[in-house]
Amino acid sequence: EADIYQTPRYLVIGTGKKITLECSQTMGHDKMYWYQQDPGMELHLIHYSYGVNSTEKGDLSSESTVSRIRTEHFPLTLESARPSHTSQYLCASSDSFMNTEAFFGQGTRLTVV
Amino acid sequence: AQSVTQLDSQVPVFEEAPVELRCNYSSSVSVYLFWYVQYPNQGLQLLLKYLSGSTLVKGINGFEAEFNKSQTSFHLRKPSVHISDTAEYFCAARGRGYNKLIFGAGTRLAVHP
User: Fold this and answer.
1) What's the burial of A26, exposed, middle or buried (CB within 10 Å: 0-12/13-18/19+)?
2) A113 CB contacts (<8 Å, ≥6 apart)?
């Protein structure tokens, strides 16, 4: 059973608001990822982290930012939400020593109105 | 550069029939290969993975996949599907020594009674 948690599961928010999507894992994994997924579409990597204080942009450009101050926590922030940010955001983690699969959270479905 | 191509965006099938979901990859290095399943409004769950060794890998829920290096394929199969198998299936690859997991566009499996 994977232990990676995302909150909130669903969020409806007005344009211009600042939001933070939370992601935490209890597996001690060093790598963490954020993917963006539009309904019925593929996953696009928007941010990843190799460890504490290490973050990089993914393949899909995103106006969001991330931080990795603690191993277990990888929050994603949008300073000013827009309707174009409406999407599902999936957080994942993996262990570079074991070099196996990524474990995913349940996702946050964000709607900006 | 790596890429993953899922050849069918949708696969309709009747209950108890066999199914094959096709996946091809391209990579300049050896790869690890994965199949994930996503149920509506959920995160991704690992079905199976190929890391090395036997080219036929068995996963959860009766699924299996075969790694074919010469054809750069990793097709997913199940001999008899159930209504509960209706979901989105994603093929993914990661090059050995690389950190990023690359996903295909997904295949929607619809099982009909």
Assistant:
1) exposed
2) A12, A13, A14, A15, A83
Task: Kindly report, residue by residue over A66-85, the tens digit of the pLDDT.
Answer: 999 999 999 999 999 999 99
- Residues of chain A contacting residue B46, judged by C-beta atoms under 8 Å apart: 101, 103
- Low-confidence spans in chain A with pLDDT less than 70: 1-2, 97-99
Pairs of residues, one from chain A and one from chain B, whose beta carbons lie less than 8 Å apart: 53
B60 φ, ψ to 5°? Answer: -85, 165
Q: How far apart are CA A43 and CA B64, in angstroms?
A: 23
A90 to chain B: which residues are within 8 Å by CB? Answer: 43-44
* Cα A14 to Cα B28: distance, rounded to the nearest angstrom: 45
Measured between CA atoms, the residue of chain A closest to residue B103 is A43
Q: What region does A107 belong to: left with phi over 0, alpha with psi -120 to 50, or beta?
A: left
